[in-house]
Design a protein that fits this description.
With 556 residues, this protein is mostly beta strands. The chain is built from 7 helices and 24 strands. Among the domains are: 45 residues, no CATH class; 145 residues, Immunoglobulins (Immunoglobulin-like, Sandwich), CATH 2.60.40.10; 63 residues, no CATH class; 117 residues, Macroglobulin (MG2) domain (Immunoglobulin-like). The strands form 7 sheets. Strands 18-24-23-20-21 form a 5-stranded mixed sheet, with no helix packed on it. The chain has a 4-stranded antiparallel sheet with strand order 5-6-14-13. A 4-stranded antiparallel sheet has the order 8-7-15-16.
Length: 556
């Protein structure tokens, strides 16, 4: 990707190996000159550099070999040795060794020299599976011209940007890299042409590695408020909606997605609801490629109306009237043809076409994006800006089982550089909760602790029903659970045998509250690390509010 010095020797060499006949061992070699005489590798070999001296000679020789496809073409006029007798066989593919080298470096004992490489792949390299039929090793240009390096070039550029982010001053010396200024609008003044609309595009970084790739907007801040049979999800998207993309320099927030699952594996989550802004992608027909291409970021409906709503012959312009099978033909430019498609699903009307809604629908845009600078009327009890607070309630849930909830943020990508929409991780923002009475309800309504399942039956196959060990990672002796609900935030749980012996003590400590503060469980393992046996057990819950007692049965 980069090297630690600007003035280095670079070489790229390849050769084929013929183990049975050394004279057929061959690779491109330059003809010797008086200043740089030809070196014989020995054993009549013209390919494999045998021995350390020859290997270092190849690495320092500053030779860039021509492509394997051109092995059958005589390059003598350019200073290369003529092709071998079997060159036509080599040109259409062979067992090849490749060597990329650069240097020299002086490395003292104990020193380290970090070097970064990027392996680049690309789609669409071969345009037609029948193209190889035109390959002629004597004139390979016809085949070579049918190959497409565009995706490889895109991915190479992204690898370079990830290694060293353009426009980012990594080391704080006020150098942000190299940029171009592209002006697309002008006006005429007495002094001449004046540029009125210009964009600055950074294309190189500050030569200090970043190792940071493109990323979606930050995930919103998630809070869960349980009640019996339902979960109220609240999330705040201040950072999601105001963070500037590291590469495009724009705020590219597109929307939110709410997921729910029965465990914390990504495959367990299902989409519950989504919200995204109303915008449309414009696919323009490229006559050179004979296909539609996406070149610009999504347009709002208002922007499209301003661009095309007042054109001659256009009435009641609606982008959805112009899908791919009915493209829009510009009335003033005969070669301008394009169609529109929604970016995501355009579920943009909060509380109507999406169950996600504003928690404070009448809250105006804040006076500042820094909560500490805002008036108290603009803040929630948790100190978040009300304007960016959203909510959704998920009903008809089983109260006795845990659910995992995740809210992600996603962007619209970067069509200019071929980057698709990015979404935050479902797993990283996932939080568990039980649809039981919240710990606040437990305190306010003086709800009593209860235990389930009671009785606990070992033959009920709770694991196969999905109530235990859903991810299959626990041993059978450790996967069993008896649950305690309506617990105070801070308490001690004692479990006794019918004879009064202490079986297990659990410390329930959730002083900050939260969606699991009213719940805890016991895995049926005693304080002596033995499996609990069949019988009647007593439980005692002690807290500042008092003492509660009850009993349950285990049947094995």
């Amino acid at each position: 990707m980069r090297t630690p010095a600007d003035s280095l020797a670079y070489s790229y060499n390849w050769w084929i190996i013929d183990y049975s006949e050394p004279s057929r061992d061959w690779g491109p070699r330059q003809i010797g000159t008086p200043e740089d005489p030809f070196r014989d590798f020995g054993d009549t070999r013209l390919g494999t550099p045998s021995g350390d001296r020859n290997k270092y000679y190849v690495m320092r020789h500053k030779e860039f070999d021509y492509d394997l496809l051109f092995a059958g073409v005589d390059h003598s006029a350019d200073g290369w040795l003529p092709p071998p007798e079997n060159a036509l066989d080599i040109a259409d593919g062979y067992d090849t060794r490749n060597l990329l080298s650069f240097g020299p470096f002086n490395i003292d004992p104990g020193e380290k020299l970090p070097i970064t490489f990027a392996w680049i792949g690309g789609e669409g390299f071969h345009q037609d599976p029948w193209d190889f039929g035109v390959f002629d090793p004597r004139a390979p240009e016809a085949y070579y011209d049918r190959l497409s390096f565009s995706d490889l070039a895109t991915n190479s550029r992204w690898a370079s940007w990830i290694y060293d982010n353009p426009g980012v001053d990594t080391d704080g010396d006020n150098y942000f890299g190299e940029f171009r200024v592209c002006c697309h609008d002008t006006t005429y003044t007495e002094q001449g042409v004046e540029y009125t609309a210009c964009d600055t595009t950074w294309h190189k970084g500050d030569r200090i590695p970043d190792f940071k790739g493109a990323s979606p907007p930050p995930a919103p801040v998630l809070s869960i408020y349980p009640s019996v049979g339902s979960l109220k999800i609240r999330f705040n998207g201040l950072n999601s909606e105001t963070t500037v993309d590291r590469f495009s320099g724009e705020i590219d927030f597109e929307g939110y997605r709410v997921y729910m699952g029965r465990d914390d594996r990504e495959s367990s989550f299902s989409l519950v609801a989504s919200y995204d802004r109303e915008d449309y992608n414009k696919f323009v027909f490229d006559y050179s490629r004979e296909s539609y291409v996406l070149l610009e970021k999504p347009f709002t409906r208002e922007a499209l109306l301003e661009l095309y709503g007042n054109l001659p012959g256009v009435e009641n312009f609606d982008p959805m009237d112009y899908p791919r099978d009915n493209p829009f033909e510009h009335p003033l430019f005969a070669d301008s043809v394009f169609y529109f498609a929604p970016q995501d699903f355009n579920q943009s009307i909060l509380g109507k076409d999406t169950p996600i809604d504003k928690a404070f629908p009448n809250q105006p845009y804040p006076s500042s994006l820094f909560p500490e600078e805002c008036d108290s009327t603009e803040l929630t009890e948790d100190g978040h800006l009300k304007y960016f607070e959203y909510q959704i309630t998920i009903d008809n849930l089983l109260p006795t089982v845990p659910y995992y909830v995740s809210v992600t943020a996603f962007d619209f990508g970067s069509p200019e550089v071929g980057l698709a929409s990015l979404e935050t991780s479902i797993i990283n923002s996932a939080a568990p909760a039980y649809p039981l009475s919240s710990v606040e309800d437990v305190d306010e309504k003086d709800l009593k602790v209860f235990v389930y399942p009671n009785p606990y039956r070992a033959d009920a196959q709770y694991d196969q029903l999905g109530f235990e060990n859903r991810d299959g990672t626990e041993a059978e002796s450790r996967m069993r659970r008896i649950h305690f609900a309506n617990l105070p935030k801070v308490c001690k749980i004692y479990i006794y045998s019918i004879d009064g012996d202490l079986v297990r003590e659990l410390d329930h400590n959730c002083p900050e509250g939260g969606p699991e503060a009213m719940h805890d469980s016991w895995n049926l393992i005693t304080r002596n690390t033995q499996a609990a046996v069949t019988g009647l057990y007593y439980w005692v819950v002690e807290s500042e509010e008092g003492v509660q007692m009850g009993k349950f049965v285990i049947i094995k």
